[in-house]
Amino acid sequence: MKTRITELLGIEYPIIQGGMAWVAEAHLAAAVSNAGGLGLLGGASAPAEVVRDMIRQCRELTDKPFGVNVMLMSPYAKDVAQVVVEEKVGVVTTGAGNPGAYMSMWKEAGIKVIPVVASVAHAKLMERAGADAVVAEGCESGGHIGEATTMTLVPAVADAVGIPVIAAGGIADGRGMAAAFMLGAEAVQVGTRFVASSEAVVHEAYKDRIVKAKDIDSAVTGRSHGHPVRCLRNQMTREYIRLEAEGKGFEELEYLTLGSLRKAVQEGDVTNGTVMAGQIASIIHEVKSCREIVEGMSADCERIMRDRAERYTR
Ligand code: TUI
């Protein structure tokens, strides 16, 4: 499949792996890139030197293009922003904020910059600031989310900007990918589906929780204090949501989630840890290799787009 995104990034399939905190490390990113998509390393809240090591490790594992996600709420964001320049990373995506302060530095270094946006206003701002593309991320996504759904955000952003749009949030198979293309996207960013991949260095209990998730298992914590995070329901989310209903604020609630994503991803504590995952977890029924995911999604997407066109236009 050829789109402006496959051309821009020099990749075979228009599939980008989300830069997920604690999950998007070198093995996963390299596996996605080796499969023909774009792997991303998640800077998350890691110190800059840890991100530098991840970049160097990823280079050992693939000679294909890969990128780094800079999480702008990180206390180390400024240093990570510098490291991607020093390490000559080809592609940077950003999340959870406005990357305006780093834009000229990255563009001067020849980096392709793709901010994740959750609104039309932010997408327009990023286009004016020189972004090469945007990821329009709907609130079906796991982790830190905005308000709009993928179904409404993607066409609205596609209408509002001239740069290519990558759809994210609720996409885990060829049907979702085809739907995103119908909404005006030229690639998809996929998170949860890659967490449940054989190459993801994630505790088996976390993968199993995704594989067993039902449609109603998704919860959002932190809406009351303006830091909404989507994850799978468990003891932690029940307690969090109960305390939120009692009117507890961000500071009081933060202790519940401190280190809790790492606890789930690395220790497999899916009861008290934070199991970030998108709503689409419920259609994921087995762990697959990154190659199976990338090739399977693309093949199904192409077939669906061809078949449906014939079915509805006869
Ligand atoms: O960043 C994400 N998802 C994330 S980051 C993350 S680490 C974290 N953990 C706990 C609490 C908070 C963060 C886990 N998941 N997705 C990209 C994304 N960006 N979604 C929404 C946004 C966003 C929101 C507001 C982007 C920009 C924005 O405001 C723009 C502005 O002008 O400030």
Order of helices and strands: HEHEHEHEHEHEEHEHEHHEEHHHH
Tell me what portion of residues adopts beta-strand conformation.
Answer: 5-15%
Low-confidence stretches: none
Order of strands, main sheet, comes to 1-9-8-6-5-4-3-2
Structural class by secondary-structure content: alpha/beta
| Each distinct ligand | ligand TUI
Mean pLDDT: 97
Main β sheet profile: 8 strands, parallel
Q: Tell how many strands the DSSP assignment holds.
A: 11
Number of helices: 14
- Rg measurement, Å: 18 Å
The best one-word shape is globular
Percent helix range: 40-55%
Q: Give the termini distance in whole angstroms.
A: 25 Å
List strands and helices in order, with pairings.
Blueprint: H1 4-9, E1 15-17, H2 26-34, E2 39-42, H3 48-61, E3 66-71, H4 77-86, E4 91-95, H5 100-108, E5 112-117, H6 120-128, E6 134-137, E7 143-144, H7 150-160, E8 165-168, H8 174-182, E9 187-190, H9 192-195, H10 204-212, E10 218-221, E11 229-232, H11 235-245, H12 250-257, H13 260-267, H14 290-313
Parallel strand pairs: 1-9, 2-3, 3-4, 4-5, 5-6, 6-8, 8-9
Antiparallel strand pairs: 7-11, 10-11
Helix pairs in contact: 2-3, 3-4, 8-14
The protein binds ligand TUI.
The site of ligand TUI has 19 residues, from strand 5 and strand 7.
What's the quick description here?
The protein is of the alpha/beta class. The chain has helices spanning 4-9, 26-34, 48-61, 77-86, 100-108, 120-128, 150-160, 174-182, 192-195, 204-212, 235-245, 250-257, 260-267, 290-313, and strands at residues 15-17, 39-42, 66-71, 91-95, 112-117, 134-137, 143-144, 165-168, 187-190, 218-221, 229-232. The chain is globular, with a radius of gyration of 18 Å.
